[in-house]
């Protein structure tokens, strides 16, 4: 890994929490009349972000929010996903697909694939960072920040992992 001096801090802990709070309020506004909203975190870091959004929703929303997880093989050329829920649980509900960074759109496209056979009320997407390098026609409904970067650059999202403080770095 490159030295920390080559990492540019994009969001600090407080700014990340502000973005999470704003996203949660947007979800609340768009789904106020719902009884339940499912937050589907794309593991690993999308799962951390989904949990953080759920914590805010549990404080502010009149609806129930449920956390579910999707684990995909990001290197596979076809959809290979493991889920920790029964697909029928999503029937006629709002599902919000959550990931940390939208880069090419492949991960979210695979996430969509999990729900193709479920009669959802609606499917929305959340990312903390939208990099604008899409190879797939994927747009986000809720984004913490949009960055125009070059392909060679990398975004590192740290969400209270392994004792490190929350941060988003560009390297």
Automatic annotation (TrEMBL):
Keywords: Glycosyltransferase, Transferase. GO terms for molecular function: glycosyltransferase activity. It comes from the Bacteria. The keyword Phosphoprotein does not apply. The keyword Ligase does not apply. Coiled coil: none annotated. PANTHER family: BIFUNCTIONAL PROTEIN PYRR. This is Pyrimidine operon attenuation protein/uracil phosphoribosyltransferase.
């Amino acid at each position: 890994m490159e030295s920390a001096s080559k990492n540019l801090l994009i969001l600090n802990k407080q700014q990340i929490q502000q973005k999470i709070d704003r996203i949660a309020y947007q979800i609340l506004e768009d789904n106020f009349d719902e009884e339940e909203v499912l937050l589907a975190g794309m593991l690993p870091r999308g799962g951390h972000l989904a949990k953080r959004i759920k914590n805010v929703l549990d404080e502010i929303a009149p609806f129930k929010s449920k956390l579910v997880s999707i684990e995909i093989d990001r290197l596979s050329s076809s959809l290979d996903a493991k889920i920790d829920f029964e697909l029928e649980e999503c029937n006629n509900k709002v599902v919000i697909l959550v990931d940390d960074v939208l880069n090419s759109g492949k991960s979210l496209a695979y996430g969509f694939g999990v729900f193709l056979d479920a009669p959802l009320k609606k499917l929305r997407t959340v990312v903390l960072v939208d990099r604008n390098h899409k190879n797939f026609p994927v747009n986000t409904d809720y984004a913490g920040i949009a960055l125009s970067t070059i392909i060679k650059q990398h975004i590192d999202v740290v969400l209270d992992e392994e004792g490190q403080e929350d941060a988003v770095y560009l390297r």
